[in-house]
Amino acid sequence: KLHSDLDKGVGTVKYTLSGDGAGTVFTIDETTGDIHAIRSLDREEKPFYTLRAQAVDVDTKKPLEPESEFIIKVQDINDNEPKFLDGPYVASVPEMSPVGAYVLQVKATDADDPTYGNSARVVYSILQGQPYFSIDPKTGVIRTALPNMDREVKEQYQVLIQAKDMGGQLGGLAGTTTVNITLTDVNDNPPRFPKSIFHLKVPESSHVGSAIGRIRAVDPDFGKNAEIEYNIVPGDGGNLFDITTDENTQEGVIKLKKPLDFETKKAYTFKVEASNLHLDHRFHSVGPFKDTATVKINVLDMDEPPVFSKPMYTMEVYEDTPVGTIIGAVTAQDLDVGSSSVRYFIDWKNDVDSYFTIDATEGTIATNELLDRESTAQYNFSIIASKVSNPLLTSKVNVIINVLDVNEFPPEISVPYETSVCENAKPGQVIQTVTAADKDLSPTGQRFSFRLSAEASNKPNFTVHDYRNNTAGIETRRNGYSRRQQELYFLPVVIEDSSYPVQSSTNTMTIRVCRCDSDGTILSCNVEAIFLPVGLSTGALIAILLCIAILLVIVVLYVALRRQKKKNTLMTSKEDIRDNVIHYDDEGGGEEDTQAFDIGALRNPKAIEDNKIRRDIKPDTLHFPRQRPPVEDNTDIRDFINQRLQENDVDPTAPPYDSLATYAYEGNGSVAESLSSIDSLTTEADQDYDYLNDWGPRFKILADMFGEEESYNPDKVT
């Protein structure tokens, strides 16, 4: 309520209200000054309002007092329940946790004023989830309430939590939330086999490394705590089998390490142990985390292919062995009960296999062609054995046949076959060391001996010194040699091998006499070099030859350039042979001018100069001009040309190649005579051009043109 001291209660004062909520939330009685709330108030929405009030004169509308400000505070009541803003909750706790193990902390929020009364004082409690879990009423911390909760018994728990204000007293408002708690796994259970004995049946034809069976131990734990490792306990059959763990199914996969044979052993028994990989030390007291079971394997008899006595056969045979000679045998047998006979044959793959044959019943291998070690030293092929009772069951074995060498080739000197000796050589000087090669291959290594042939041993020039290590030296036997007396010597050397039968050959070495310096360095071995100066070395000879070659190249280039220049001059001369054209710049007098140029000089062969010297060649000697017979004015141009051709053909001074000859002769002219104005009539008499009409359609335009000129002639009188 507002009241002014100037208000006498006679209605002369008016009260006004402004500020937060004026007119919408609050209103004022203008006469009495009473303030009323016109709608419900919510402290949580707006806890207080700031208003301004003033007293105004009703008549003058002027304020009686200064404006005053006041605050209206909204008093809280318990009208909001606690709320779990983060709910519902999800939590986990390991199984077998002790009592009081921390799980989760929940928190509820009350919008009421915490400073006024107990409206915002919250207390927590469990409505559902006991006796497994408990909650602190003040903090909201959830803990385990029972020991040894087992995940394998129950894994999921749902706990209902209540939060109540007014300190939990009667009349307080409450809110709830749900907490889903999961027990996580720990390795508290060892693996266990569901049965103590596992029986497996395995065919004896099973391949090594193949899986022959599976066994499984059960572990109620989860994840890595349920991972199992299987091992075979050492004992009977442990070396024939192996076991691994299937990571997806945690089963033990038994695999074969060695082949099985029903005829050798029909059954195997061994033990398998299953244990956890990840152990928890808290549960060691429970007992060993492993289990053992027995595995019995029965081998099933299968129809198997024949078995060779060896994994591979190696044989030897001498080359040139007669066809049909037996060189060895292979053996295979059927080990099944009631064994069957075996047949043998060669696995034909290429033509090499045709060198041998095999007896289908006995398995003996014989040669089918003559063998040559130098062509093929080793043969490798396969033999197949099959059962008579079941030909589809076959086995294969490799056979290697080595061809042994027979001493059939004589040894020969290894290159070079030619050597040299200095003219100033001394007796006993080694000029060449020779070795030998043999196409035969001896298993113990060849031994070669060297000597001179009988006919050469008496000559006093050279000898052979055998070093007895498969080499020999060619030594001189005289003091000095002369190229002028003998340039080449031929030395026959006999070489023998040590194999049986002994093979030998005579090899002729060529020895060339050369000029050497005092140190034994060869200077020249050519015959022409004998006549050169003594002090001229090989390098000097090369320099001289090089200079000569350079001079020859220069001469060839010079001659080629001169010939090219001469050819160009000749071509220029040919181009110069053309008609003479006379230029004159005066205009002339037309048909009346008869003195400008004598056209007869171009037509009359008499006007040609008879003493012109040929310009297409360069004359070697001076010749007198040839006298040509005169040509008549009426000579036809064909006769004129033929005459000139004959003169050139018999001319001894003409060049031996085609040339251009020009003859300034126009002939006797055409039927129409010359059309040039130079040779026209000089009189002013009228000319008749009617004859142009007789020349045909080609001259029709010319005839019409001159006909019109005649018809329009102003001087003509008709």
From TrEMBL:
Keywords: Calcium, Cell adhesion, Cell membrane, Cleavage on pair of basic residues, Glycoprotein, Membrane, Metal-binding, Phosphoprotein, Repeat, Signal, Transmembrane, Transmembrane helix. GO terms for cellular component: adherens junction; catenin complex. The chain crosses the membrane at residues 530-561. GO terms for biological process: adherens junction organization; calcium-dependent cell-cell adhesion via plasma membrane cell adhesion molecules; cell migration; cell morphogenesis; cell-cell adhesion mediated by cadherin; cell-cell junction assembly; homophilic cell adhesion via plasma membrane adhesion molecules. Residues 4-84, 85-193, 194-308, 309-413, 413-531 form the Cadherin domain. GO terms for molecular function: beta-catenin binding; cadherin binding; calcium ion binding. It comes from the Eukaryota. It is a single-pass type I membrane protein. InterPro entries: Cadherin, Cadherin-like_dom, Cadherin-like_sf, Cadherin_CS, Cadherin_Y-type_LIR, Catenin-bd_sf. It is found in: Cell membrane. SUPFAM superfamilies: Cadherin-like (SSF49313). Cadherins are calcium-dependent cell adhesion proteins. They preferentially interact with themselves in a homophilic manner in connecting cells; cadherins may thus contribute to the sorting of heterogeneous cell types. This is Cadherin-12. The gene is CDH12_0.
